[in-house]
Amino acid sequence: MLAEHVALSHLVSYRRGDALNLPFPDETFDVVWTQHVAMNIPDKATMYREVHRVLKPGGVLAIYDILAGPAGQVLFPVPWARLPETSFLVNVRSQWRRIAIGLAAHVGSSSSLKEYSCSSRFRVSGVGYSTTGPSTRT
């Protein structure tokens, strides 16, 4: 493992789990980092609800994921899926909507989501993305 290679294994532990039912108590982590995860999970709202559940108040969710973009249809196979039926890419707007749905389910209602998202418990500090594909410049 990388942690062993760089002599940091004493700072890391590994647990296998289900992203839709995380094996950790509420408010366990200061940071939850997903890397190339959501594109493999069709029920993103449940995944984000679980992520939110295990984050401590004021915690950070860092997402590094592949999203559908303006470059056109995905040509299969790709590294995460052999067929379209096993790929769950969404666009940026849809991804944020699924995060909001997951939060609303955790908070209790969509009407309280606005109030909740304005609290110190949830905030967006930055969003960035890049696209690949044919250039639109002439």
Key descriptive features of the protein:
disordered C terminus, alpha+beta, 138 residues, two-stranded parallel ribbon
Task: Provide a quick synopsis of the model.
The protein has 138 residues and is an alpha+beta fold. 28% of the residues lie in helices and 12% in strands. The N and C termini lie far apart (46 Å).
Describe the protein.
The chain is an alpha+beta fold and 138 residues long. It has a domain at 28-69 and 76-125. It has 4 helices and 2 strands, in the order αβαβαα. It has a two-stranded parallel ribbon with strand order 1-2. Strand 1 (29-35), helix 2 and strand 2 (55-64) form a beta-alpha-beta unit. The longest helix has 16 residues, at 92-107. The radius of gyration is 17 Å and the shape is globular. The termini are far apart. Residues 109-122 and 129-138 have low confidence and may be disordered.
Q: How many individual β-strands?
A: 2
Mean pLDDT value: 74
Approximate helicity band? 25-40%
> What structural class do the secondary elements suggest?
alpha+beta
Radius of gyration: 17 Å
Number of helices: 4
Shape: globular
Beta-strand percentage range = 5-15%
> Could you give the order of the helices and strands?
HEHEHH
- Biggest sheet architecture: 2 strands, parallel
Distance between the termini: 46 Å
Lateral arrangement of strands in the main beta sheet: 1-2
State the low-pLDDT regions, or none: 109-122, 129-138
